[in-house]
Amino acid sequence: MAYRGSVRPFVNFNPKHDAEILHKAMKGIGTNEDTILMLLTSRSNDQRQDIKAVYKKAHGKDLVSALKSELGGLFESLIVALMTPPASYDASQLHKALKGIGTEDDVLIEILASRTGEQIRNIVKEYKKEYNGKLEKDILGDTSGHYQRLLVILLQGSREDGLGVENIDKDAKALFDAGEGRFGTDEEPFITILGNRRVEHLRKVFDAYEKLSGSELEDSIEGETTGNFENLLLAVVKCVRSVPEFFAEGLSKSMRRAGTDDSTLMRIMVSRSEIDMLDIRTSFKKRYGASLYTTIQEDTDGDYQKALLYLCGGND
């Protein structure tokens, strides 16, 4: 597999050297934001953790706390996000979504629909470690109905293996019979099939469904379900089809309307920078006709903008 992230490990990495550069950038009057953002956006997350450890050893204080005391606003939030290990960052986003006033369902949906089984299992571990609670219990306390059940299935992070060819048509028919093929909707097959089957299998099921019904599964979901349950089902289907396309759409929505949804913009740019940012850029350009780079340029400003553009990694 070719590497599809925009941020890759820095080749001649020297954490001691980097820790000193950051220390100097924060020393004395004024802070050199350019140095901070250029250095941190050109190191991988693992490398940033090494810099953090070396900095503490050399200066007897936490690098993230030092950065927070020197920076402010969206730029500070972005740098803190970059300094956080991925599973811990996702856990913090979920905790914030569940523990604030009301539930930020779009965050639960985005993370649980798009992460791999292994990523989800790591998030659950981190959540327990950092918040002394079970993520599942907190989700149960904050959600309900079919939506809750599908979230809990996704939270298990274990899609089943080895379903034979004969099950493709069977699953497609079960989905058709549960939605378009009847009066009213039977949500059960949507929950169990979309929640448990492997991605490769589901792609074939979607094709078979289209042959059977003459329309895409998304059309049926939009016609048969509503609210958070509908949004979660659509997110799962989109991620099965193409995770980069799912995130290209998320980025477009975060910017291309009145007011920027910075928390979503930041979360996607940070969490995909070492995974599939190059593919997200390709999807974005193909779908919206403009590059992700110029869209970020038009929608943001200052050091925050510069750092996001480094994470984007280039114009298309």
UniProtKB/TrEMBL annotation:
A Pfam family annotated for this UniProt entry: Annexin
Keyword Calcium part of the UniProt annotation: yes
Keywords from the named record: Annexin, Calcium, Calcium/phospholipid-binding, Repeat
Calcium listed as a keyword: yes
Source taxon at top rank: Eukaryota
GO-annotated molecular function: calcium-dependent phospholipid binding
SUPFAM superfamilies on file: Annexin
Record's comment describing the protein's domains: A pair of annexin repeats may form one binding site for calcium and phospholipid.
Family: Belongs to the annexin family.
Protein name as it appears in the record: Annexin
Annotated source species: Pagothenia borchgrevinki
